[in-house]
Design a protein that fits this description.
With about 500 residues, the chain is an alpha/beta fold. The strands form three sheets. Strands 3-2-1-4-5-7-6-8-9-10 form a ten-stranded mixed sheet, sandwiched between helices. A six-stranded mixed sheet has the order 14-13-12-16-15-19. Strands 11-20-17-18 form a four-stranded antiparallel sheet. The chain is globular and about 85 Å long. About 40% of the residues are buried.
């Protein structure tokens, strides 16, 4: 099945555009490899060029595609074409590829876009041998960073096994994969001589709602370059931005980063993620006519000590939604706290949870696998601070919000949000105003990618050096913002003189 292999067969029209963007291919690269050639559309396109390469090798694992690819190759007059049945995930390319020609090598094509997790859910056998190719450690591997696109694996395999041949590689892929490969190349000291990202319309060509591109990379020698222009389409002459590497990560806008890099450091305060429970149908409640209901419209009566006002990322992102409309059940005060204590301390809550224990048993995240029954993740003393400064992670533009208590309780945030806990309204007002300074917003914007599922991450937030930012701000504008926030939080008074001296420990 195509789905089992993550297939997106490349339309001939797109193949033609890609090859035109790479021209003159035959002049620059006498050898061309297509590592997952599918039905052979790229091979046919290469052979139809005015100046085709001297030799083409195509690899394909699926028998039905292999037949079509060999038919597409036909009998080439001036090009030697070899199409082999081979699994890119298990073959050693240096041993598999037996070239008759010499000279510069181009790798071109459209590898599978499906992820390892999606293949796992389909019980597919088309999965590369498990190996920690990106050196992911600990909690990142548990919470999902270990999931990868098959295209990413193909890129890493090509760069690892063909690096000595200094190939040019031009593959269609998600733009998120291109960024991961730029970072991988930097981490592994692969000498990237030049690279580019040219956007394509994946919805038009493949019916896929993802940001995709033609990612081109030329392996060279010596010191690699850390700048990659991003073009709006295959044929644009001017880039819309330039991505680059800064302190080990790929930044979205190198120019904006350089303007604001004075505050690139380490946050003096620790950013936390909101509560994760993966059981919203049970844990999230709304008030109707003075009583609480869950998603199934059941009336819920539990002990007040375990019920807290809740803000979601969508609330933070919209003006005027600081007042929580929802409530969340919080079963623990700290990570790993035994929950069987609820049976005596909160019998109503315990009865409600046991009634819905099937929902908790069905949670798929491995963070709950060995945790106490009805556990939450991302809960600690910081969750119960009366004041917070929060931001929504799923939105493309950062907007930092100072939050105070609601219903005489600390406000909880869902796991799409990040926050700093603050011991006072003054501190929350000051820090939120500092984070909303134009220089800080420019810095954050330079690091985040608009097409990412979660553009704003804890990693980005922890890079904001607030101590370095403070002396670079316009103090009068900053103080005016802080006073407005303080008044919104408290409803009275002004910030005392000299309050900025006590912002950071």
């Amino acid at each position: 099945m195509a789905r089992d292999f993550g297939d997106f067969q490349t339309p001939p029209e797109l193949v033609s555009d890609v090859l035109e963007a790479l021209e003159p291919i035959g002049t620059r690269w006498p050898r061309v490899l297509e590592p997952t050639c599918g039905c052979g559309n790229f091979i046919a396109g290469l052979l139809n060029l005015p100046n085709p390469p001297k030799e083409i090798i195509g690899l394909e694992v699926q028998e039905q595609h292999l037949i079509h690819a060999r038919q597409a190759a036909g009998k080439a007059a001036s090009t030697t074409v070899t199409i082999e049945q081979a699994d890119i995930f298990s073959e050693n390319l240096l041993g598999t590829l037996r070239w008759k020609e010499t000279g510069p090598l181009l790798v071109v094509g459209n590898p599978p876009w499906i992820t390892s997790a999606e293949l796992g859910s389909l019980s597919s056998g088309n999965v590369p041998r498990k190996s920690n190719v990106r050196g992911i450690r600990g909690i990142e591997a548990i919470t999902g960073s270990s999931n990868f696109d098959l295209t990413e694996y193909v890129w890493i395999k090509l760069l690892t096994e063909l690096v000595e041949q200094r190939p040019a590689i031009a593959l269609l892929c998600k733009t998120s994969v291109a960024r991961k490969i730029l970072r991988y190349s930097h981490q592994e000291s692969i000498p990237v001589q030049e690279s580019s990202i040219r956007k394509i319309d994946a919805r038009k060509w493949f019916g896929a709602a993802v940001d995709a591109c033609l990612f081109c990379l030329q392996v060279g020698s010596g010191q690699g370059r850390a700048e990659t222009p991003v073009y709006p389409d295959l044929f644009a002459s001017e880039p819309e931005s330039v991505v680059g590497i800064a302190r080990g990560i790929v930044v979205a806008d190198l120019a904006a980063f350089r303007q604001s890099r004075a505050i690139d450091g380490t946050s003096p305060l620790v950013w936390r993620q909101g509560i994760k429970h993966d059981a919203a149908s049970v844990m999230v409640l709304r008030e109707v006519d003075g009583a609480l209901r869950n998603k199934a419209e059941e009336w819920v009566e539990i002990e007040e000590d375990y019920l807290f006002p809740l803000l979601k990322g969508s609330d933070l992102a919209r003006e005027g939604h600081e007042n929580p409309r929802l409530f969340v059940i919080v079963t623990q005060r700290r990570l790993g706290e035994p929950t069987e204590l609820l049976q005596e301390r909160a019998p109503k809550l315990w009865h409600y949870l046991k009634k819905h224990e099937g929902v908790f048993a069905a949670r798929k995240s491995s963070v709950f696998a060995k945790a106490p029954e009805f556990s939450m993740f991302g809960v600690g003393d910081y969750s119960f601070s009366a004041y917070k400064v929060a931001v929504a992670g799923m939105y493309r533009s950062p907007r930092f919000r100072a939050l105070g208590p609601a219903h005489e309780k600390p406000v909880m945030l869902d796991d799409t949000c990040y926050f700093l806990s603050c011991e006072s309204a003054e501190k929350a007002a000051l820090i939120s105003s500092l984070l909303n300074d134009p220089l800080c917003l420019r810095f954050v914007d330079s690091l985040l990618f608009k097409d990412a599922k979660r553009p704003i991450t804890k990693g980005i937030l922890q890079r904001i050096d607030l101590k370095a930012l403070l002396p670079l701000t316009d103090r009068s504008s900053l103080h005016a913002r802080a006073e407005a926030e303080f008044e919104r939080l408290t409803g009275w008074g002004h910030l005392p003189p000299g309050v900025w001296r006590d912002v950071f420990p």
